[in-house]
Amino acid sequence: MLSLRGLLIILSIPIRLLWVVLKYPIFGGVNEKFKNSLVNSLKMEVFRTGLTLPVGDAAFLGIMNNNFIINTLLKLVHPALTKLNKYGKRFDKQSIWLVEAPNRSKSDPIIIYSHGGGYFLETQPSQLESVLSFYHLLDEEKKQKTSVLVLDYKLVGAGALVGEQLYELVATYEKLAAEGNDNIVLLGDSAGGNLSVALLQYLKQARNPSLPWPRSAVLISPWMKIVPDQHQITPGHSFHDNESRDMIQSQIFKEERRIELLGDKNHADLLISPGNLEYKPSDWNDIPTFNAKGYSTFILAGEHESLRDDILEFAKYAVKSPLVPQTQDSGGAIESKVHEYKTQGTNDAYVDVVVEPWGVHDSVLFFESHIIKKIKQNPHLQVKSLDAVEFFGVRRIVDFLNKTLVVGEEAKTLSADDTTKTTNGKL
Question: Which SUPFAM superfamilies does the UniProt record give (predicted)?
């Protein structure tokens, strides 16, 4: 049953939304990014409120699971875009195909998408619409050979405490590898980004030579520190300074929530919450996905998201990014030296770390998902034609995938030439 607290939160939503509507003509939207967007301001308020729900109540209210969204909702709303090979079919008990490329080779890429939601909220339709859109926007050669799997992991409300989801991802990864697949790409947002990084740490610790390293990782607002330090909720830190702008607010990180998510587990663990440990270069330097030639990593954060500082600290050690939290507001304009770190990938991994000006947590999957409407209107839509501000994240992610996805004969050659192994956890 719904708790009294959960009921009060649900009942407060109409009042919260009405307040946003009343303020809008005078003060504009809820933050700088959405100052001129009432729709996105209302969505932001709903997401903020949803994140305050007790874990048990979120499970009670979670009527749309991955299978329903993929096999019922998206098929109904986007019939043409879901007519894909193996669409909606299970690969194993914890993953579902969005598409398996017909006549693919074992060296063609498979993207594993792990969704965000704090490990207690179901996948939202906009997240899967966005991932489906990324696929449809790929260059034709890449699209014909790329497959996409959705990880359907158990939520905390179903009895799986944070940390257990990793072994569901491991099971799917091991099955793919056992079938000979060696070109795997990790895509994750928020908690899904945390899960993707945890898999890399698992591979480093497992040292299993039969498991290939992920060829690439796309990390969108990765949740690298499950429990923020108290000093972070003070002026001068993104948790404090972006409190009124972002959907992630410090009030949700109370001791009660920590216990709901983790039980009595120690969260300061590389397989659970790397940011709650002191960062050491030795924990990251020998992960090929972050550091070796022929591999690649993309990390996206928002200037106005609460997790910004944690993400930049992680990027400093994982991919040697020099980006630091900015001291002056961007005014919504990108400045390459401040907002982006990109390597050439000549002698090591190709890396692209981007801070979206005025961006908020998980913006690309929650506030750019209307891209799917444009694709429906124009199935031949090219990513370069998209507005660089309105679809900041979509353009960056698809451009990255188009650059780094290796398909066909090139993929077979790269696989044959690859000398990096998980053995001994070293390059």
Answer: alpha/beta-Hydrolases
Two tokens at 354? 């981007």
- Bridge partner list, 300: 220, 354
**Separation between Cα atoms, residue 86 and residue 98, nearest integer Å:** 7
Chain centre distance of CA 243 = 21
Q: How far is it, in rounded angstroms, from Cα 344 to Cα 346?
A: 5
57 and 145 share one domain: no
Residues contacting residue 373 through CB under 8 Å, at least 6 positions apart: none
Instruction: State the pLDDT at residue 421.
Output: 53
Query: How many CB atoms are closer than 10 A to CB 229?
Result: 13
Residues 45 and 108 in one domain: no
- Whether 399 is covered by a domain: the verdict is yes
Strand partners, 218: 187, 298
Which residues, at least 6 apart from 298, have a Cβ–Cβ distance to it below 8 Å?
Answer: 216, 217, 218, 219, 351, 352, 353, 354, 396, 397, 400, 404
On average, the pLDDT of the chain sits at 95
Looking at the whole model, is its pTM more than 0.85? yes
| DSSP per-residue string spanning 39-78 | HHHHHHHHHHHHHTS-HHHHHHH----HHHIIIIIHHHH-
* Co-location of 272 and 414 in the same domain: yes
Task: Show which of 61, 84, 110 is a domain's final residue.
Answer: 61
pLDDT greater than 50 at residue 329:
yes
Structural domain boundaries enclosing 263: 70-418
